[in-house]
Records
---
Amino acid sequence: MSNGLPPLREVISSHGLSARKSLGQNFLLDLNLTRKIARSAGSLEDHDVLEIGPGPGGLTRALLMEGARRVIAVEKDQRCVAALEDIARAYPGRLTILQGDAKDLDVSPHLDGPTRIVANLPYNIATELLIRWLQPNMWPPFWSSMTLMFQREVAERIVATPAQKSYGRLSVAANWRCDTRIALQLPPGAFTPPPKVSSSVVHFQRLQDARFPADPNRLERIVALAFNQRRKMLRSSLKGLGPDIADKLEGLGVDPTRRAETLSLEEFCKISVLA
């Protein structure tokens, strides 16, 4: 029980909330685990928390129990709204439920800073939402930190460093403007229904400024070109930028025979001027 609310398994049963694969749903029902996730986000007092895909509200309850000033929960599945409304009644004035697709909703009118994003993201939209939050039109963004659940493979790509097998576009996008770390590992059995893969919670702490100066659009283009053909040397993967790309790379102090996976963040930022 939490604040007079019934166990989550009862909620799922009474509201007919079987997880839907089409919505990327895998529910976390263990309140000890959801409270661990909430605590890994840092202090929630005096913060609004944006949660995407709350489902029956396991993490929602944990965020409120851990002291979030307000939780703004975005849920696409109409079936889950009644269960979330029960939580809202148990925590008067602290839970706002927005029914709709997180990719289409403008949540900014509902948030008062400082804001943290904490979510067990639906797997089918997790990377798309992450990229959107990492690449806003203006930096710093509306959030001060993000604590997000991903498939373990995606989490490893986010925190990877140069020369690691998982190092790629997500690694550069995340670590250019954030400190990232894996905060928790969760086995498939932690979820209902159990997914086929393990999961990880990644914490992103926003930096006030990017680590190294670069134009975001140019950097994104260079990184995409370089990693789209990651086994090729830079002089080949970036040849679309001009016939003299090898000379330009050398002029910037970067060996054109290197591959994308060996470049540091600073080097990517340096060569982004060529895009």
---
Amino acid sequence: MTVSRTDTDIVIAGGGLAGATLALALSRRLPALRVTVVEAFPLAPDALPDSYQPSYDARSTALAWGSRQIFGDLGLWGRLSEHATPIRHIHVSDRGRFGAARLHADDHGQPALGYVADNRWMGLCLMRELLDSGVHWQAPAAVTDMQNLPGGIRVALEAAGESRSLTAQCLVVADGGRSGLKEKLGFRTRRQDYSQNALIANVSTSRSHQFTAFERFTDHGPMALLPHGSPQRPGNTSALVWTLRDAELESLLALDESGRCQRLQERFGWRLGRFTRMGECSHYPLALSIVDEPVRPGVALVGNAAHSLHPVAGQGFNLALRGLMTLVGQFEWACTQDIPLGDLRVLGRYQAGHRSDWQQTAGFSDSLVQLFGQSFPALAVARDAGLAGLDMLPGAKRWFARKAMGLGGRRP
């Protein structure tokens, strides 16, 4: 449904992975809608490279099998899979204890449990597809405010020091959790600080990863190593996500590369042999951040703007992707019912449809942090027994595999 009185139908604040994916999904499923993406960084279509050369220090995202299905439905997976490393095995262990659980894609009749893709490659794939769509871009620009109007909204923009506005049916905030826009619009965030930081880097090891993702719980916090590199040949590069307390992070960053590899060796162990290289490190503080009511008339929050999780389970972007598709489904329903896209009946259905998914996923991630973050001996024994039981009980293993593959909830 298109309302001619407005300049556009949907304004998406933020053109990162979440915002660009939403724009692509809308162009595929509802091509008659007018979609405008407002992005703070410049967009130069002529500057997009013809080919992609992976960088050692490229940051990456874990894509669950369910996300691979969504990208397949959007016609993006054929291009994206060219540089997406499969996760064929998952090994979960508790450092210094006997308990461990192992998942294998073959046991579940799948070619992979998930994938690891460079963020830059995903962005390039999305941009290539969007260039051929009818999506309009305002970049560089930023959404600064929103006002409800009869039958729609007015979105305030700022670009190159000048202010202007757009009228639309609905604003979707997809600019992450740190822009300040959601707070300016009056959304209240519930935050639980984990007093930890995530250190992100790519590392090389003397042994091949054999397409295995390692989840290692230690007395100082969890760490993950995800296979990175060629989709066809198992390599020696992994993407590291390492949770550290403030003092530990400061101490690690003060070391040279050799010292950092040695510290990582002490915490992770020798399952991948010797750590031989650690690339450029980035880090950010960790918290569970939830907006319990992510919709209001005319506006909806998605992705990290609505919820950000601890990276222990690697489900943040996968949860966001499922939420995006739930929202697109409700926009489809609104068009069939001739209801304005920003109507609370539409956005309320999105909130209701996505709520159980984010509650379960956030609860699952938080429970892992709480369970494996305690060093009490009795609890450690119970954790080991649980991991051993998970490895031996088919029903429990199937449940855990579905969680890891992003299939724990209803697929939009």
---
Amino acid sequence: MNESYPATIAVIGAGVMGEALLNALITSGINPRAITVSEKRETRAIELRDKYGVNIADQNENAANSEAILLVVKPQDMSALLTEIKPFLSEGTLLISIAAGKKIEFVLAHVGDSFPVIRVMPNTPALVGEGMAAMSIGTHVTELQRNFVKSFLQATGRVVEIDESLQDAVTAVSGSGPAYFFAFVEAMVAAGAKLGLPIEVATELTAQTLVGAAKLLSTSGKSAKALRENVTSPHGTTAAALASFERSGLGEIVAEAMTAARDRSQELA
């Protein structure tokens, strides 16, 4: 390996997250000509080639010619993929797994225990540069490889490095978290419409309120608790709404949902 590591990069799987990570690689300074995409849907592969200027190839050829490989497939497809590409891997090839629930040891069991593996749990706001990713480092990973992965993930938003034992919890918090947000938006919009607002007005009010609240949380230096208390006047409208949430067991509902996500991630292992 050298200063330009990796000279060649494979992205296997080019769905929504695959494209987000492809874009992150380029944004972080990787030459698009160093990246080769493998995707079962030929029209999708051609679309990405034309949009980003990357190469396309079948996954076995791609695996054989790449120093680093992003495995961006569904958890249930990971075993078959690893089995298929194993004969084509060169010693020292970095494998970056994005599959929820699949441990580093799972990858090594399929390809051999001498490969460097980094496990990553990103989320879909990576598409707009506001993602949250958690990375866990395998035994054989070098500092150069670690820095490469951290660098391109930072182009998607923020990155934390954690022990792999916490990855299922990360999946429940940030990996699945955007869907919780969207579900809450749906509920607020529906409630606003029920109160008489036009759908488009309820949608704009809800979206901008939550975007603004999130930015306030991320920039104010105050905790969510402090910000909530700041906007809650005793016996006021906000207090009435929050009291209703409390009576409905909002905390317990969220905890139960996140535990279910964590448990499903463990099952996928």
---
Amino acid sequence: MKRIIILITALLIYVLSFGQDIKTINLKDCYKTAVENHPLYKQFDLYDATYQLKEKNLNINYLPAFSLNGQATYQSDVTKIPFQLPNMNIEEMSKDQYKITFDVTQIIYDGGLTQKHKNINKVDVKINKQAVEIELYKLKERVNQVYFNIIYFKENKKILNISKKNIELKLKTANAAVENGILLQSDVDALKVGMISLEQKITEVEIGMLSSIKMLKELTTLDINESTNFDFPDVEININEFQNLRPEYQLLNLKQTKISALKEVVSAKKLPRLAGFGKTGYGRPGFDMLSNEFDFFYFVGAQISWSPFNWDKSQREKKILSIKNKIINTQKEAFNKNLKIDLESKLFEIKKYEELIIKDIEIIELRKKITKTASSKFDNGIITSSDYIEKVNAETQAQLNLQTHKIQLVIAKINYLSSIGKL
């Protein structure tokens, strides 16, 4: 008794441990891992790093600018005093002159130009990232295709295996009937042909499934195999509200945001700018032009610069940007129009599969009855095995059609969501 308990316990542990090895994944997991493991995903961090460096460079505009300058010259003539003052000996200036200076400039007000350029920097990094999002969105669409191929193959394999088992059972009965002289060997051979035909289909399905699993592993780097469970998503769509969330459409919006930022830069360029400055140095001559000695010197000051009139250059630049904005508006209108046409087509496709599924269920119920009757007739020698195989194949095909249409319905709904950018 103890040995039986130990065997049962060991068997339960084996079954439980085996069950733990069977993983279940869903479509969102595949999206996430496919995106995060794609080489293009690294560009997000690279664009962030570029943004930070540009931001630091722009912040330098708020800091004082320093420069060290040196100069040595020889000139053909110098300023002279044409007369001598009593009791004063004014030395003639040297024609070789030397100067080294240290200059400081501090922007006090730049009309907000630096801030406007920082705004453009923010938009630029968003545009670059959005371009990556577009490529990664295409990757999700690729994942959809492979993911549902796997589900399609797995469901087909289940149905084909059930049909194969039914024929195997019928084959055992037929063999016994041949031995008893009720059936002919040709009936058994016809059943064997039907089973081999199913085995061929199962082999095709298995190869297709393994190929798709390998592709999905490459896309997602997930540890999956033929025993992995693939969640069949329940997809709901809302057809009452149109909202374009496509990444390509969002890129157009960002380009318009950049145009608005560029207009602000044009406006800021027309505003006055105020700066403080200073200079100190050592050279000959200094600020005392009557002294021919090397001397230290310095000065400080402030300057304002303003160009209120630039021959309407700013207005023309703004008009150019406005035209570009209108061009993008036409692109958005065309995008929305084409999208609405595409969505109408996808809605009809969804409706088609919904109606096909209703008919599939009706057909399967009838096919089951026909197959059950054929099985009884075959057992009683009323019909041949070929007739029975024909009915079995018809029921199997009806089951396959139902599963195919169910998968196609979900794919059609996901394609609808993909079209509006809701993957």
